[in-house]
Design brief:
By secondary structure, the protein is an alpha/beta fold. The chain folds into 2 domains: 274 residues, Zn peptidases (Aminopeptidase), CATH 3.40.630.10; 130 residues, Roll (Aminopeptidase i, Domain 2). The protein is 27% helix and 27% strand. The chain has 10 helices and 20 strands. A 9-stranded mixed beta sheet has the order 1-2-3-13-4-14-18-16-17, with helices on both faces. A 6-stranded antiparallel beta sheet has the order 8-7-10-5-6-9. Strand 11 and strand 12 form a beta hairpin. The radius of gyration is 22 Å and the shape is globular. The two termini are 38 Å apart. The relative contact order is 0.18. Keywords: Aminopeptidase, Hydrolase, Metal-binding, Metalloprotease, Protease, Zinc. This is Probable M18 family aminopeptidase 2. One of its GO terms (molecular function) is aminopeptidase activity. Its EC number is 3.4.11.-.
């Protein structure tokens, strides 16, 4: 039987169909652990050794545990991840009727691996904003059951499907919701108003706008002959969010600790609630009180940026550098890039290796092939925003940015364990 942490991750994934729902799930876990919600619009009165969390845009969250030791002198142990995943988002005026089929126009969000989206049972989740009694309100919705699909074109009509088929995002991706009869009309906002009433009991709402994404209704699961693997949507990067949260909730109270999970990483992080925005810096300034305290604290601190890494695929091993092919279930991966696509340096890498050795956790490294481009993550962005020393790590993963990804069960436990050891570490480099 797999661990309680693995089951917890499965539940978290299944309840977090959008960044808004992921943030809501983390808020609920923090509240249950005694963390107090902060509102950025209020004056903050923070207590020594207090536990707090603050959200922005309902899709990014920062959790703070103030430690017994002086924060300026001993620094902050920061873990960063992101709440968003590549997906298909509904357009503002999405209604399409072709041959009496009701479809919705979608935008591609992030670097989506498109082909796995075909022939899936799709549902819809996210945030809607509406008017009720002349007041503006927002609410999260999740249809949960399958309401749409994107059928493939039969091989008989697309002989090139297996030899290099370029998917047209405008014409080939609109999901089918229903088959209409001549007397039926299509009104997506009416559908949303009905869902709002069913899910939240809110009547007479006028839907003004929304941020909604399609997702696969197949639940996350542990698979494999020996139950080695976690299969599910949004492992990149909700696995890291979950691991960071569990580490924070189970760490000591000695040092000040922060978990920051931000939205919009998959599209560059440049937003008010993204890692390339002011959210984290503004929160830390409010905690620390002065510019000098902020600078001194940052120079005593370290950020572990946790975002999934590419595991070496046995069918495509030549896509990896021969000396840097991380294997699933053999521990977290240190990500390195000479051009600063990752923020790791020799000191932060050495610190993490020592941390893993002390915790008896295996550790691996990843460098992309020199003739291939390298992705990036929140590590370099946050390091550039704060000036904090940073390391980029992550668990090895297959099918990253697919509608269903694959990671190792043991790696989840390894990541939680090493992040907890980091939060408890008496010294930083």
């Amino acid at each position: 039987m797999y661990s309680t942490s693995t089951q917890g991750l499965l539940d978290f994934l299944n309840n977090s169909a959008s960044p808004f729902h992921a943030t809501q799930s983390m808020c609920q876990a923090l509240q249950a652990a005694g963390y107090q919600a902060l509102d950025e619009r209020d004056s903050w009165q923070l207590e020594p050794q207090g536990r707090y969390y603050v959200t922005r845009n309902d899709s990014s969250i920062i959790a703070i545990k103030l430690g017994k030791q002086d924060t300026v002198e001993h620094g902050i142990r920061l873990v960063g991840a992101h709440t968003d995943s590549p997906c298909l988002k509904v357009k503002p005026q999405p209604e399409i009727t072709r041959h009496n089929y009701w479809q919705l126009g979608v935008e591609v969000y992030g670097g989506v691996l498109l082909s796995p989206w075909f022939d899936r049972d799709l549902s819809l989740a996210g945030r809607i904003t509406f008017k009720q009694n002349n007041q503006l309100k927002s609410c999260l919705i999740d249809f949960k059951h399958a309401i749409a699909t994107i059928p493939s074109l039969a091989i008989h009509l697309n002989r090139e499907a297996n030899t290099g088929w370029e998917i047209n995002a405008q014409t080939e991706l609109p999901p089918i919701l229903a088959q209409l009869h001549d007397t039926q009309s299509k009104d997506f906002r009416a559908l949303l108003a009905n869902q709002l009433e069913l899910e939240h009991g809110i009547h007479d709402a006028t839907i003004l706008d929304y941020e909604l994404c399609f997702y696969d209704t197949q639940p996350a699961a542990v698979i494999g002959l020996n139950r080695d693997f976690i299969a599910g949507a949004r492992l990149d990067n909700l696995l890291s969010c979950y691991a960071g949260l569990q580490a924070l909730l189970n760490s000591s109270d000695e040092h000040t600790q922060v978990l920051v999970c931000t939205d919009h990483e998959e599209v560059g992080s440049n937003s008010s609630c993204g890692a390339d925005g002011p959210f984290l810096a503004q929160v830390l300034h409010r905690i620390l009180g002065s510019e000098e305290a902020f600078i001194r604290t940052v120079q005593h601190s370290l950020l572990i940026s946790a975002d999934n890494a590419h595991g070496i695929h046995p069918n495509y091993a030549d896509k990896h550098d021969g000396n840097h092919g991380p294997l699933l279930n053999l521990g977290p991966v240190i990500k390195i890039n000479a051009n600063q696509r990752y923020a790791t340096n020799s000191e932060t890498s050495s610190f993490f290796k020592l941390l893993c050795a002390q915790a008896e956790i295996p550790v691996q490294s990843f460098v992309t092939r020199s003739d291939l481009g390298c992705g990036s993550t929140i590590g370099p962005i946050t390091a550039g925003q704060l000036g904090v020393q940073t390391i980029d790590i992550g668990v090895p993963t297959f099918a990253m940015h697919s509608i269903r990804e694959l990671a190792g069960c043991q790696d989840l436990g390894y990541l939680i364990h090493v992040l907890q050891a980091f939060y408890n570490s008496p010294v930083l480099p």
